[in-house]
Amino acid sequence: MSRKTRTAAHGNASAPADASRHSTGGTPATVALAGAKAAFTLHPYAHDSSALAYGEEAADALGVPYERIFKTLVAEVESGLAVAVVPVAGRLDLKALAAALGSKRAAMADAAKVERVTGYVVGGISPLGQRKQLPTVVDSSALDFETIYFSAGKRGLQIETAPDNLITLTRAVTARIGKTA
């Protein structure tokens, strides 16, 4: 398994000054992290096109516990679309998401609409680098880890970074929005 690492340290050989799409994995998510000079590692893996549970597929391929890999889900709340980032080990608690955003209810958004608004395809939606900045809630369990994994913006590529990087760059709030499956 090959990995590419970038760090915020200047002069570090693993952190080239060039933040081009080619050197950072080629997605808006990696460009956003590189532009913020945030430390991250890319983890590519062979995506199985017949896989239906993309997060679990990534966890299994990379040998990472399900609790450390987070999936990006998009829901409709009264004010519009919102992003939920929850561990693949569980499910999104829509009532908790709505409460975290000050809404009365939330429902999963239509996949075609999500792809159009985020610029990513289902199974490769990253919370970073979306076409339109959406209100974001990251499950508070992310703070239990030094680093977490989430989609880099395409199937077969995960980002590993500190949860604070994700929270800062998405302007997210944290709340307990995941529930066990």
Automatic annotation (TrEMBL):
<keyword id="KW-0456">Lyase</keyword>
<protein>
    <recommendedName>
        <fullName>Cys-tRNA(Pro)/Cys-tRNA(Cys) deacylase</fullName>
        <ecNumber>4.2.-.-</ecNumber>
    </recommendedName>
</protein>
<keyword id="KW-0648">Protein biosynthesis</keyword>
<dbReference type="InterPro" id="IPR004369">
    <property type="entry name" value="Prolyl-tRNA_editing_YbaK/EbsC"/>
</dbReference>
<dbReference type="Pfam" id="PF04073">
    <property type="entry name" value="tRNA_edit"/>
</dbReference>
<feature type="region of interest" description="Disordered">
    <location>
        <begin position="1"/>
        <end position="28"/>
    </location>
</feature>
<feature type="domain" description="YbaK/aminoacyl-tRNA synthetase-associated">
    <location>
        <begin position="56"/>
        <end position="168"/>
    </location>
</feature>
<comment type="similarity">
    <text>Belongs to the prolyl-tRNA editing family. YbaK/EbsC subfamily.</text>
</comment>
<dbReference type="InterPro" id="IPR007214">
    <property type="entry name" value="YbaK/aa-tRNA-synth-assoc-dom"/>
</dbReference>
<dbReference type="InterPro" id="IPR036754">
    <property type="entry name" value="YbaK/aa-tRNA-synt-asso_dom_sf"/>
</dbReference>
